[in-house]
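Sat 14:20. Reprocessing the chain from the morning session after the first attempt stalled halfway. Input below, unchanged.
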Amino acid sequence: MARPILRMAALLLAPALLAACAGAQASPVLPSPTPPGAVRFIVGGDSRNDSAHVVPWAFRGAKVREARAFLFLGDMELSPEMDEHFSKELPLLDPIPFYPVIGNHEALVFGRFAVSTKAHEREFQKSFLDQKRTPVQSRYEDKVVYSVDLDGGVHFVALDNVSQKGFGEGQLRWVAGDLEQASKRPGTRHLIVGMHKALARNGVTTHSMEEDGPAAVADSDAMLATLVKFHVDLILASHEHQYSHFVQAGIESYLTGGLGAPLKVESGPEHAYHHFLQLDVTDHAIAVSVVRFDGAPSTTTKEEVE
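Finished this time. C-alpha cells:
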C-alpha cells in the first residue's frame, strides 16, 4: 500500500515543486534582541510540500532569535506516511522545545481520507510527544490535546479539531477545566490557545471549522464562548496558507499557515507569503511580529493585557 501512496504523492508534489522554483528566495533571519523583561516564542504552521525549504529557515531563525519554544500549528507533510522527513529536520531546532498541534495532513491520508486515523494519531504521539524536546503527553489516546506552562507565565493549550469534525464534548469539558485551573495559578500571565483549523465565523476565511458542518460550527461556538469566559489572550491557527490578523469575540487571533505549503495567492500579496510569527511576551503585553521568508518588512501588533 505504501508504494501507490508515494507514487501519488510524487504526482501531487510536482506542481508545487515547479511553483517553488519560481518563488521567493529565503532571506537569512537576522538576530533581533529580545526586549528587556520579555521572553520570545516562534509560531508557524503548514509546511507540507516545503520545496522552498522554509522549515529549516524558520528553525534556524528560532535559534538565532533565542526563542524559548517553537509552537507548530499542524500539517508537517502531505500525508502521515511522510512525517519522517519532518522528523529529520527537527534537530535543526535543538535545544529549543517544540510543541506541535496536529493538522489534518497528520490525521488523514493526504489530509482528506479517514484511513487508519486512530493509528495515525497514535504514531504522531509516539513520534512527536513525550520526549526531551516535547515533554508533554496527550490527554487522549485518539486525539492530540494537551497544555503546558511555558516561560514568561504563558499557559499554552493545544487543541485537536482535525481527528473528528469539531472538538467533541469531552475536549470541550477538558478545555474549560484546564483554563479554569490555569487562570487561578498566580504564575499564569497569559493564556494562548493553538489549533489547526480556525474557529468558524471568523470573518476572514471559511476554510475553517465552518466547512465541517453544523455540529462542528456548534462546537466552534461553544469553544469560543469558553475562551472568552477565561479571558484567553491569543488564538493561533493555520490551515489556510496565508497570514491574517483579526479579532474574534474580542480575542486577538492569527492565521499563520506560511511555513512552506503552497500559498493561497488569491488572497493577495498582503497575505500570501511564507513567514513565521514572533511573540515577545512580558507580564503585561504580547507583541506579535511577522518575519517574512522573502525578507520584506512587516508590521508588529501588540496586545496590552490587564
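Residues 24 and 294 are 6 Å apart (CA to CA).
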